[in-house]
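Ligand: magnesium ion. Inputs:
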Amino acid sequence: MKIVVQKFGGTSVATPETRRAAYRHVERALNEGYAVAVVVSAMGRRGDPYATDTLLSLLDSGDGAGHEPDPRDRDLLMSCGEIISAVVFAHELRSRGHRVRVFTGAQAGIVTSDDFGNARILDVRTDGLRAALEAGEIAVVTGFQGCTESGDVTTLGRGGSDTTATALGVALGAEVVDIFTDVSGIMTADPRIVEDARQLRQVTYTEICNMAYQGAKVIHPRAVELAMQGNVPIRVRSTLSDDPGTLVTQAAAHLEHGRVMDRYVTGIAHTPNVTQIRVRGEGIGASSIFRLMAEHRISVDFISVTPSEVAFTVPDALADAAVHHLSQLGYRVETRPGCAKVSAVGAGMMGVPGVMARIVDALAEAGIEILQSADSHTTIWVLVDGSQMEDAVRALHRAFQLSGT
Ligand code: ADP
Ligand code: MG
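Predicted complex:
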């Protein structure tokens, strides 16, 4: 049995028209002789009636407003959007003459930890899914959710449907996992910001994982990691077209336009809404600062430590808490909210001379101040004011000639 997993994101299942486009992809795979496991997200985006954010907002209004929801209940509520979506998808597929079976995360055998809101997949028990596929049924699985050993419903965190899809792809031994979305593939930058962003035809797991960790939200990094571990290829592609999209595999070199390219910058990614925190003073204890942040589960990024200053960033939403805890250590703390991290991401930047110079020049020319910077062998990060984020993304995209025109 050759199996394909096809994941359809929120916009792809939002309306009857987009769903019809999705069914055509399912039917094409069936015609090609594949057994098809579909993974669906909740329908639409914030504001749409059955989107996850809309369901969640029910807890922030009325008499419950301002009161922290129970995490276990919150996950149960958040799991409803995908259930609604899966049932509608299956119902419409049946009306086209197909045999279909719906699976919740639990029914699909996705066993997770009990970290509600951000559960980790511990095991995938695919007997039920397999049986359905072997019986010639299309399996429609709710994305983004799983279930603990004791039967509590959990959710997998942002981008969780991508993770469901690749986890199933690995567990089922799928030939490929198709991530259908509202763009034609992975681009050299978010096409909402860079108009002439170029679509990448083929990339490695590592490259795309790095892009995703730096904020490219087209696919979730955990999903890529899982696929990489199981060595299952991913295709990121558009629901509304037949474009083959972007192929993500292990391959190290890239064949584009018929030639092998060993590119060192794959693309530009961005993460908005972070606060820069600088702690100053003689003899500051960096380790006590980071231990404090860890104790309060505040994730820190962009760390720079010198004898007289410790600087790092936290998500804007956690800045007040971070400052509160730091001030209790008696340190002088300065904050700058509303910053953005812009990253040039590649696979082989190490040792390529002049990369940093190019970045500094490009940003200076665009009148953008670098608040902080850092680099690794695959990525160069700069922190800029949030108001200049889009300009910074465009400036770096230009500087590395990523549009390729
Ligand atoms: P879905 O609901 O299908 O999961 P997402 O909104 O999660 O869709 O992801 C698709 C979006 O990712 C695109 O609309 C695009 O704006 C954004 N995006 C960010 N960076 C990139 C990139 N490098 N390439 C393509 N899309 C990107
Ligand atoms: Mg997504």
